[in-house]
Structure prediction request, 190 residues.
Amino acid sequence: MTAEQDLSDETQNSTPGQAENSAENQTEVLTTSYLIEQLQEGLAELGWTPAALADRMRDIGDYRKPQTILRSINRALEGETRPSGELLALVRQTVYLQRRLLRAYGDLPWTKLGDGSHTAEADDCRMTLKPKAGGRWLVVVMHKDGYSPRYPRWQVGLEAAKRMAYLTLDNALNWVYDNAIEQGRDASEN
Prediction:
């Protein structure tokens, strides 16, 4: 059977309009402009700039130079290159992670301190949001054992800072879990 016959058989077995709709949808869904729109929507929901996405990519293992990562993101957003499936998948997965973290920690009580900072505690970590000039906030997360993940870029607005604090908290907890696994391996080898 040839590929043309196989395609013809698939078309005959589908409901009227289904074959042409799926072909049209596939072509429409995969256009570069659609993919760029998906990338922009994901970044908007996260409240991130391309630089913040590049930071996240480095945090989770992208070994390229930061400027190379940022250039590839900007080229995709500007339509110079087609956004890769991996980049879109990462942004979508991070959107899902942020939604999950907001469900888990969104009702966490924050205490305003005398210096204008806000602080909250969860999962053996203290999150502190320190106000800076121009409505920006510095996010600091410290585990009870003294570990603090890299400070993320300053966030514009208190709500954005809280969302970034939850993600940074998740990074800290992942480090704690990874460290515990590594210590267990070291103990079993000795």
